[in-house]
Amino acid sequence: MANVNNLGLTLEQLARLTVVDHPLVQHKLSILRDEQTGTKQFRDLVRELALFEGYEATRDFELEPVQVKTPLEECTCQHLAGKKVAIVPILRAGLGMVDGILDLIPAARVGHVGMERDPKTHEPHEYYCKLPPDVEQRTCLIVDPMLATGGSATAAIQYLRDAGVRDIRLLVLVAAPEGVRAVLDFDPDVRLYTCALDRELNGSAYILPGLGDAGDRIFGTR
Ligand SMILES: O=P(O)(O)OC[C@H]1O[C@H](OP(=O)(O)OP(=O)(O)O)[C@H](O)[C@@H]1O
Ligand SMILES: O=c1cc[nH]c(=O)[nH]1
Ligand SMILES: [Mg+2]
């Protein structure tokens, strides 16, 4: 696995990278990587890991005081200060992470960005995009289990920037060093969350050790 200190990132870029290394996350990720893990369990784990990661990626959401009357007395509590959120899965594999985040933020809107990598050039091709009409007022959580070359993620970030979105956070489960550098170099403000920093890409731009093709494993299309 890669070490966060050996990625050649600047201190400013390091501050925008979070590796979610909670023991439960690492345990679930090990099962996800296992080639013996079947479609149903794989899909369940992607959803659960997205929930854990969403918890970390929303840690700085602002609160405001609210008065609550318990059965015993009134007290001042905190509730979310009305932050509006959009979840933006990169199709297909990103769809697997949507429900886990919706479990945390049920009022979030969902936009879709359809990208497919060309198997030879590894360049992403956009085939579908649909965002909520007020997306520029929302914090956007782009979700995709895999960050390999970074081509798909940077194209999705550019699409959201063109739509006027200011607060963009990219949530992936497994990242290659190449993809981490590409994303943090590409956009000076995006924040990146990953559960694992893997070693490298192979000649077909698949992540090593990785978990194979996330889309095929989620949807059983291999
Ligand atoms: O960082 P990159 O080099 O762009 O690679 C990562 C992308 O590749 C995979 O999608 P894929 O194109 O296989 O589409 P799918 O989700 O429909 O399987 C993955 O889910 C990412 O979107
Ligand atoms: O390892 C990889 C790279 C891209 N897409 C995947 O699904 N897996
Ligand atoms: Mg795929």
UniProtKB/TrEMBL annotation:
Protein's UniProt name: Uracil phosphoribosyltransferase
NCBIfam families for this protein: PRK00129.1, upp
Role noted for this protein: Catalyzes the conversion of uracil and 5-phospho-alpha-D-ribose 1-diphosphate (PRPP) to UMP and diphosphate.
Catalytic activity, as annotated: UMP + diphosphate = 5-phospho-alpha-D-ribose 1-diphosphate + uracil
Residues binding 5-phospho-alpha-D-ribose 1-diphosphate: R92, R117, D144, P145, M146, L147, A148, T149, G150, G151, S152, D213
Similarity comment: Belongs to the UPRTase family.
Enzyme Commission code(s) on record: 2.4.2.9
Ligand binding (uracil): I207, G212, D213, A214
